[in-house]
Structure formats: structure tokens, C-alpha cells
Amino acid sequence: MIYNLLAPLAEDFILFNLFRYLTFRAGAACITALVMSLVIGPGLIRYLRQWQKGGQPIREDGPQSHLLTKKGTPTMGGLLILIALIASTLIWADLRNGYVWAVLVVTVAYGALGFADDWLKVTKRNTKGVSGRQKLLVQGGFGLLVGLWMMWLLPSQLATTMAVPFFKEVLIPFSLLFPLVAMLVMMGASNAVNLTDGLDGLAIVPVMIAAGVFALIAYLVGNRVFADYLQLHFVPGTGELTVFLSALVGAGLGFLWFNAPPARVFMGDTGSLSIGGALGAVAVATKHEIVLAIVGGLFVVETLSVVIQVFWFKRTGRRVFLMAPLHHHFEKKGWAEPTIVIRFWIIAMILALVGLSTLKIR
User: Fold this and answer.
1) d(Cα 117, Cα 127) in Å, to the nearest integer?
2) Confidence of residue 67 (pLDDT cuts 50, 70, 90)
3) CA distance 258 to 187
């Protein structure tokens, strides 16, 4: 909004020329989201605590320590992330950019779905919420819609293909199936982050790491000079997603202030489904879907642990892990929660570096 209002005046007022720089607006978006979340956080948490009373329902089949340490903590903290993220993006992004709006649609739609799930859990005082089938239908519907939108926005030579990291010329053609592929990327990322969100601070830091990596990717891919130099596929307009992703980093930092152990609020599905879907949408827009699986490898492993556990238990009646997702397995083994969280953060940072290496190794 500020860009659209003030950038055209740069020729008359030299100071307004700052708003033409993507890096300036990205930094401003990060700071705005951080300050906003820190300011509104205490009031929002007080309201959630008063309204929810008993806090988020805790799984009785989960780690027994959670019944003591997590009881009474309110959920829906994802609202704090969404408010700061969306407001900051609307303030600092170029609102004429189609990619920004496409990613915002996914973020808001998946956030609304997560809110409905959290609402049902809190009001009915159980851990069921929205059924798995209903979640997949809503995620799939909006994912398909945005996949079609992305196909229309992308350059013709990239509109129905998927790029392969490490190979500068390789594009996997999907033709009319591309919206389905895009849908699966968004759904997969959304649910993977959701499964990872089980310990204080566990999900939000890897999300911020991934957002930081993709902010750089979006900036490079959206700039012809850098894209040509690094032999990346140039996607005009995606540079503006740097503002959105920087805002996500700022909002995540603000949320972590209140979610750091012992958490004062949980992200809930309101946050995890929305920011996971947003990362998936950005990966589709920047043609780095496979790189998201590398950078977000922690989310992939957490998801695979659930898939393996369910498959093997149904087939043999035995469990591979003491409990799934994987972080609960280590809890059952006696690892302290901060130990699990910090070690998973380290793994996320290592995977981010591996993902970044794909930009240069061609």
C-alpha cells in the first residue's frame, strides 16, 4: 500500500525513492510484523486465555508430561502470526502483484480452516476438530484454485513445469496436471508443518528459516540479472514475495517471544496450516518446489514418521517408533523437550544450507 501510494512521488520527493527498493520494503515489513506482534501479543493471549479457560485440549495418548506442562495453555496463537503477517504485507508490498495476492489467498484460506479446527477443539473440549476428510477437501479446493491462478501468472515456458535443482535446463512437464501438482505441494507443506507443531518453539523456527531461504530465492528468481548469473529460471514479479516472506520472519519472531518454553500460547492449526500452505505457494511461484522439500526436510521427516508408523502398525500390529510424529518418539526415549527442539532447529539450519547450495551448484 505504501509502495503504491508513495513510490510514484519519488521524482518529486527524493526520500520516497526508498520505497522503490525491494530490500528496504522487505526489511521494513519484517520490523513492522515483529513490532506489531509484540504489541498486540499480550492482549491477544489474555483474551484467548480468558475465553478458552481450560486451554488447548491435550491428547491423553500423548506424552504424559504434556498433561502437566501443557495444560491450560491457550491455542489459536496463529492469529498473532496472521494478523502481523497480513497487515505488514498489505502495508509494504506492491498490491498490484498477482503472486502476492495468490499467496495471501492460500494463507487466509488455510488459516480460516485451522481456526475452525481449533474452535471445534476448544468448544467441544476434545482433540478431534474438523475431520481429516473435510480438511483435505478444503485444502485441495483452495490449492487447486491457486494452482490454476499460478499457472496463469507464470511465464508460458514455466507455467506447467517443475524445475529440478542442480540441473539448469531440466524442467519436468506436467501439462494440464500442473495445478494438481501445485495443490499437492501446498497441501503437503501445510500438513507437514502442522504435524511438526508439537513442542514449544519446534515448528516456528524452522518455518522462519525456510521463509528466510525462500525470501532470498524469491529475490534472486525475480531479478533477471541475478537469475541469469546463477542460471535460475527467471520468474518476473516473484521478487515481491520477498516482502511477504520477510513479514513472515518478523511475525514468527514475535510469536516465538510468547511461544518460547514454557509457551504462553500455542500456534494451533490456525498458524501451522496457514504458514505451511504459504511456504508451499511460494515454492510453486518461484519454481523451487523440490528445494522446499530439502529446506523443509525436517517437516518431511516428521510427516514420513507418521506415514511409516500408521502403515506399519496396520500391516503388522507393531510400531516402528515409540510414538509419532518423530519428536514424540524422542520424548518417550527420555530426551528433554528443549534438547529435542534445539537439535531439530540445528537440523533445520543444516538443511537450509543444503537447499541454498542448489542455487549455485548447477
Assistant:
1) 9
2) very low
3) 27
SS3 label, residue 171: strand
Q: How far apart are the first and last CA of the chain?
A: 38
Q: Which three cell numbers stand for residue 69?
A: 506442562
Phi/psi-derived region of residue 72, left when phi > 0, alpha when psi is between -120 and 50, beta in every other case: left
Rounded to 10°, the helix 241-259/204-221 angle is: 170
> What's the CA gap between 221 and 278, in Å, rounded?
18
Convert the pLDDT of each residue in 147-184 to its tens digit.
Answer: 999 999 999 999 999 999 888 788 999 999 999 999 99
> What are the cell numbers at 239?
521478487
The three cell numbers of residue 359 are: 542455487
Q: Which long-range contacts (CB under 8 A, 24 or more apart) does 86-91 make?
A: 87/32, 87/33, 87/36, 88/29, 88/30, 88/32, 88/33, 88/36, 88/247, 88/250, 88/251, 89/29, 89/243, 89/244, 89/247, 90/1, 91/1, 91/2, 91/29, 91/32
Q: What are the beta bridge partners of residue 161?
A: 173
Longest dimension (CA), the chain: 73
Identify any residues that bridge with 163 across adjacent strands, giving them in sequence order.
171
Record the cell numbers describing residue 101, joined without a space.
Answer: 495476492
The interaxial angle of helices 78-92 and 241-259, nearest 10 deg, is 150
Q: How many residues does the chain have?
A: 362
Q: What is the pLDDT of residues 77-95, one digit of tens each?
A: 999 999 999 999 999 999 9
| pLDDT of 12 | 64
Distance between CA atoms of 217 and 294, rounded to whole angstroms? Answer: 14
Q: Return the residue matching grid coordinates 548469473.
A: 229
Cell 491462478 found at = 149
Q: Answer whether the bond into residue 206 is a cis peptide, omega within 30°.
A: no
